[in-house]
Amino acid sequence: MEWLERNVPKLVLAPSFVAILVFVYGFIAWTAWISFTRSRLMPRYELDGFIQYERLFAAPRWDVAMNNLFIFGGLFILFSMVIGLVLAILLDQKIRAEGVLRTIYLYPMALSLIVTGTAWKWILNPGLGLQEMVRGWGFENFTFDWLIRPDMAIYTIVLAAVWQASGFVMALFLAGLRSVDTEIIRAAQVDGIPTHRIYSAIIIPTMAPIFLSAFIVLAHLAIKAFDLVIALTGGGPGYATDLPATYMYAMAFSRGDLGQAASSAMIMMMVVFAIVVPYLYSELRPRRDQ
Amino acid sequence: MPRAVTTRRKAATTLIAWTIGLLIFFPILWTVLTSFKSESDAIAIPPKFLNFDWTLANYVTVQERSNYFRHFWNSVVISFGSTLIGLVIAIPAAWSMAFVPGRRTRDILMWMLSTKMLPAVGVLVPIYLLARDTGLLDTRILLVGVLTLINLPIIVWMLYTYFREIPGEILEAARMDGAGLRAEIIHALTPMAIPGIASTLLLNVILAWNEAFWTLNLTAARSAPLTAFIASYSSPEGLFYAKLSAASTMAIAPILILGWFSQKQLVRGLTFGAVK
Q1: Are A35 and A265 a contacting pair, CB within 8 Å?
Q2: Which residue out of B146, B235, B271 would a mutagenesis test of the A interface target, given it has the greatest number of A Cβ atoms within 10 Å?
Q3: Taking CA A146 as the corner, what is the angle to CA B46 and CA A252, rounded to the nearest 5 degrees?
Q4: Could you say which of A102, A245, A252 has the minimum Cβ distance to residue B125?
């Protein structure tokens, strides 16, 4: 009975722990195994070295997908952070109906892009949306045809992704702005330091951990990005807007090439680990020191 | 500094903030507006904002052609089913970590959350094959199961952040008064835990409602929820913006409304408890 009482906390934790362990790591291990085999339509379990990775790195389509990931990820993280920060500072000016605005800014994050993609397809359509709207305002030569240009289509994905995530970054930053010690700010105001200096010299530097968290969240969202591409371009024109996740999807389901699917999944996994593990380490270390 | 300047400045920032708000809201507003247009008004050049003939025809067509309500019901079953099962598994776990923290509690939490960051593609193929071999492909049971497991780390994490705010002294006081473990849980813990559980429920229903990766990959006509239904709606027959907008509006309306009435929970939930 005493044993039971002492171990109840561990026992009730066990189902969640085991579920996540088996479900996530068990299946990842399976995928890793398959990535070292010659599996095509059906899984085969005889190991055969790095053949799938060699094929992967030789595939031009994978090259495009990785390139797109760097373009998309870089711009997506940069613009979401900048816009998120600007929005947070705006809302921090104690404006009217702040709560309502905060909810509106966050709505895109609460909705699936598969669904809001309907409007984006219209906006980006060079025959209908933004292009015709601006031309209607008298700018006859305005062109906005990124969606159908292989070299520009990836930027439409950046646009929709930034739209979706900026409000989320804003909420994170706003919480950070609000948690800065008001005494310091008041002291600075009394000293006659202008507002923009207070932000750049006092408030923003103390928010460094929030910048890091926002970066980590955005980075892993970028690597996982899938429904964005499906909703807006379907990977097209051609495969110009493929990202690793859609490449993997195409290999697994339309090409019947499980080996390629598994190896591309493992590469994505490694990229995520490369970003998340140092972060977790830095999060956990100070606690251990105590 | 003269007061007039700050007032004017405040008015300016308010104006800017609201303009941006409108800009952000525009795609959502446009979807709703388009859903009431005829197909020809929907692709009119120049675009028509409010000066079109309002019609409900799209909503009727969507339901007639593809049985919208079945997909709606699929969404409800999948999102609530997976969230409720997840809560049953996660509440004891979060309770134990919040009130009886061990040396490794924080490590376990971070580890759980980190699994949520791993790309789902890493586990897609084995799950797909498993589902195919057991005949579960395109069933709601499969999706409930998968989404429960996928969102479990977030459910545990959110409940933990809420539970940790419950003052432990109250539990101690209840114990001092001679309350047993059962009475302690029913009379002291439950009333204080319910708001947190409700917020977690809200967020996870939304997450599951929006889930596209798994629903697109694991369902077909029979058990497709709204996301998969809408994704399939646009491709074969070309784009019918008005009908697609009607289907989309019906998919986002529940969340817009739910979100509006629970703004605080929505904000906190979407930021995973980082924002109080």
Answers
A1: yes
A2: B271
A3: 120
A4: A252
**Tens digit of each residue's pLDDT (9 = 90 or more) over A270-286:** 988 888 778 777 766 65
**Residue of chain B with shortest Cα separation from A262:** B122
Chain A positions touching B137 (Cβ under 8 A) are: none
Nearest-angstrom CA–CA distance, A228 and A154: 11
CATH T-level topology, domain A65-284: MetI-like fold (1.10.3720)
Amino acid in position B271: T
- Residues A217 and A158: their CA atoms lie apart, in Å, by 16
Residue with tokens 């085991």: A18
What pLDDT, in 10s, does the model give residues B247-257?
Answer: 889 889 988 98
**Nearest residue, CB atoms, B206 vs list A24, A110, A269:** A110
**C-alpha dihedral sign at B225, B84, B213, B137:** negative
As a whole number of angstroms, the distance between CA A177 and CA A160 comes to: 26
Summary count for chain A: helices (H), strands (E): 15, 0
Name the strand (E) or helix (H) holding B216.
Answer: helix B213-218
For chain A, give every domain's residue range.
Answer: 65-284
Q: How far is CA B26 from the centre of its chain?
A: 21
What does each C-alpha distance from A177 to A146, A181, A195, A197 come to in angstroms?
36, 9, 13, 14
- CB of B219 within 8 Å of any CB in chain A? no
Give how far A251 is from chain B: nearest CA, Å.
11
ipTM summary value:
0.84
Helix axes B241-261, A113-124, angle to 10 degrees: 130
Helix, strand or coil for residue B137?
A: coil
The model's pTM: 0.87
Distance, CA of A34 to CA of A45 (rounded, Å):
7
Q: In the prediction, which pLDDT does B272 show?
A: 65
Interatomic CA distance for residues A39 and A178, integer angstroms: 54
